[in-house]
Amino acid sequence: MSYSVIWSPTARITYYHVLEYLNEKWTVKEIEAFISRTEKVINYICENPLLYPYSKESDTHKCVVVFWDNRQDPANLLYL
Asked: Which entry of 1, 3, 62, 77 is 20 to 30 Å from 42 by CA?
């Protein structure tokens, strides 16, 4: 049984920021590789939700995936 992934607003924004950066600085090949890798990770999470901690509050298993441009100040990561 496969489950769905619920993206937080921050996850969507940071994902699209990475796509924008790749579009400006790299080629379609890198964009497609990033999208493909992201889809593989999301599919893995959907197929294996029991690997992640269960939250009674939301009745879900939670997994945090961060899209982070490592050229940024790491201190900003704390605010995501």
From this structure: 77
Spatial separation of the C-alpha atoms in residues 72 and 56, rounded to whole Å: 34
Contact predicate 68/77, CB 8 Å:
yes
- pLDDT at 35 > cutoff 90: yes
Q: What's the half-sphere exposure (Cβ side, CA atoms, 13 Å) at 54?
A: 3
Residue 39: inside a domain? yes
For residues 2 and 78, what is the distance between their CA atoms, to the nearest angstrom? 31
Examine residue 1 and state whether it is found in any structural domain, yes or no. no
Q: 65 lies in which domain range? A: 9-76
